[in-house]
Specification:
This protein has helices spanning about 15-25, 25-30, 65-75, 75-85, and strands at about 1-10, 40-45, 60-65, 95-100. The chain has a four-stranded antiparallel sheet with strand order 2-3-1-4. The chain has a single domain (about 1-100), classed as Alpha-Beta Plaits, CATH 3.30.70.100. About 30% of the residues lie in helices and about 25% in strands. The chain is globular. It is an alpha+beta fold.
Length: about 110
């Protein structure tokens, strides 16, 4: 998997709940059509572990089969539409991409 990771915080005039609702609703609707998107995980950040980690609202991880598939998605009209949808929102964001390696596989909890 090759992932695009987005860490974001809301605009100062939005509540945390408004931002999460927008991200998982209205903004998700324009993101779903990205070509080659295999998986999208979104984490609502409810609390930072320390002061340096505070001030963020959510993290998205969008997964593609390869770097080439991500590059194709970033060059697509669907990506341009998602970026345009964010517009001049005024929140903060950080974006990275990289190759995923599973360090601990997903297992079912034991009762």
């Amino acid at each position: 998997m090759f992932n695009l990771m987005v860490l974001a915080s809301r605009p100062s005039d939005w509540t945390h709940d408004q931002f999460i609702e927008w991200w998982r609703g209205e903004h998700a609707d324009v993101t779903y059509p990205l070509p080659g998107l295999l998986r999208w995980q979104h984490t609502e950040i409810v609390e930072g572990i320390d002061e340096k980690s505070s001030g963020w609202d959510g993290l998205s991880v969008l997964s593609f089969s390869s770097r080439e598939a991500l590059d194709a998605a970033l060059a697509s009209p669907e990506w341009k539409a998602a970026v345009a949808h964010v517009g001049t929102m005024r929140g903060r964001r950080m974006i990275w991409y990289g190759d995923e390696m599973t360090m601990v596989p997903l297992t079912e909890p034991t009762p």
